[in-house]
Amino acid sequence: MVETLFSDIRYALRWLRRSPGFTLVAIVSLAIGIGFNTALFTLIDAVLFRPLPISRADRVSDVYTTSPDDEGVYATSSYPDYLDLKAQNHVFSDMIGYSPIILAVSGGDRSRMALGEVVTGNYFQMLGLKPHIGRLLTAEDDRPDAPRAVVLSYAAWVRDHGASPSAVGQSMRIHGHVYTIVGVAPRNYIGMVPMLSASLWIPTAFVDDGEPGGIISIVPSPTGNTRLERRGTRWMFVKGRLKDGVSPAQAQADLQVIGQQLATAYPQTNKNRRVTVINGVHIHPDADRMLLPIGLALMVVVGLVLLVACANVASMLLARASGRQKEIGIRLALGASRGRLTAQLLTESGVVAALGALAGVGLAWALTQLALSITLPIPIPLTFALRIDSRVLAFTIVVTLLAALVAGLAPALKATRPNLVNELKGDAAPTLGNRRWTLRDALVVAQISVTMVLLVAAGLLTRSLAAAERIGLGFEPKGLAIISTELGLIGYDDNKSEKLYERAMERVRAIPGVEAAAIVERTPFSINYNRNNLFIPGVNQPGDPKGFAVDATRVAPEYFGTLGVPIVQGRNFAATDTRTSPNVAIVNESFARRFWPNESAIGKVFHNRSLDGPQFEIVGICADYKVSTPGEAPTPYVHYAYSQNPTPGEAILARTRGNADQLLSAMRRELLALDPNIVFLDSQTMRMQVDATLMPARLGAMGVGGVGIVAMALAAIGLYGVIAYSVSRRTREIGVRMALGANRGSVVALVMKQGLALAVVGVAIGALLAAVGARAMASALYNIGAFDPITWIGAMITLFCVAALANAVPARRAAVVDPSVALRSE
User: Fold this and answer.
1) How would residue 184 be classed by pLDDT, with cut points 50, 70 and 90?
2) pTM here?
């Protein structure tokens, strides 16, 4: 059997060498389809499927604490809760806590921002990781009185120390403190969160040397002064390694009991909170749930390109079968079984697919390198671990086998029919003007249908993006520049940071061209999401644990003028709004309409966290403006007074008459003049920030559009091949027609009619399929409907134009046929 297979492969290679044109087109078609699918799977696998490079990753579970209002089912835990869960559970052999953290690392006369992880001392041990050089963190490093130790990532070690072993034992300054480099993490380990590449790891004992990132929730704690002591300060992600024989369901039951005990023992911080255990998390359960259907949808879209490529190859194989009818007929007459011939023909398609896969892997590598070179307009750089590894190659092998089967099965079965000659004559239109439809025609129709779906999807996304860019934001983004910093990273307390911000504002306002500037905690369209749980007297009842989750920010009085959003009722913040005065807030019109629809909101109050929590009086109402996305509906928004709660982490928003990019450089220069160690978390124009929110839509439109263009090119090649083949088979008929007086125009019309008929049927079927897809993506569109006429008409016209061009060359060839030559042909 193996010998037969090798014999068939050698025969297929000889056959392919005799048809270099066919071989090249077939291999390129499959290479495009397989390459696109491999590249996309590489990305999706890195984000959603590839397990962490740790020991027995399937036995590691994530542990979450819910918020009281269940708004965050998968929320973080406090350090005291982590210690209790670790000590009291009966289902985990060990548990770890960790969090992404932003750190200020000093080098020379400047500080730079570094993204790392703060981890419990047993972190590396539980994960089963070994150091590349040196050692990793241990429980001894997690003592408050221990010397500060840090572990570098492999990439940071190569970048900052030239991969020198002497880096171990050297010192570095973080938050002004001296840390000793004790080791380098394994080369393939970049941290817990895909896309966020940690450059270093520090012990939990020194968490206050940085700013933890991720999901943070704070409620008043009756005791404790630091993050490690306050039970109501939740910032830590928790994982546990299941004991042998213990299931996630058993772990859930065990930790649920502990959660109830904590709620009873610490009602002020743990009331109505539950503990959830879940396996198979890659980023976060909510993020995984959101990204998975997007990833699968993209795989379907790119899979359609492979389907079009397979149809192309199948169409060409059918044409080749016509030329081999005598060979196959003789072999059948000599006793060869249909199964044996089918296997040989499938081997030939398999060889074509394998060669296409080799080229496709090269294309996939090039596409992943291109993706890695793209810099996204976001403050935190994303790192994609894109590599063609054994998992990706296994996927490519499966795709290649499917491609070989899809492309080769129908032609093989058709070619080995006992009545092969008569069947193939049907492809040649045995009667004048009465051409019947063939399998090749059906394949072309399928290609055009798929292309129609892709063009409609790309058109809707592109039109949606254009509509989003025209949406009024409620303010003018041109001329706005934003710089944000966290002075706490370099040792500033609230009072010291407030004084530095005052001096910074004086310098920024003195920059030539600056019209206005303000301090703000969160600017519109930033990724610094901040939602408060608000309680409204008369709306919420006493004891009600669930309030209203509302977006919020903290601003200086100059904010509204700088942004260009008017106060429509009441007053702005004033100098009298201080730390010791009653808390005040300014809400937007949507907030006022939502809670007091038939009366003025001025003078009304609301509470934070609970009806017994801090009270705020509404002193002003501002006009609505967009906060999170350009396409969002009017959404309640709260502004607190910066002067009543200044913190080290703020942003400076400035408006200039000139170029906002130039203003950014000037703002950075002025702040560094105040303190050269300042670390900038974000530095961009408002236009860039708005564009960043549209980035997923823009990438989607570009990706689907590019895939649609490739599919259209493949469909055009397929249509050209069918019409050209039909013309070659009908040369005698065309000669008869011209001998009887048909002119060139009528011959061109005859050929064009055949091709356009296929296009019409393909577009019609594709329109039905596209309608289903358009309805499914309607919720993701900005300001246009799923049946936007410009998109649909444009897609149809484009396909008909491409079909006409694909028909033009065969039609012209038919029109110049010499009747005397054609009549003498077989």
Assistant:
1) very high
2) 0.78
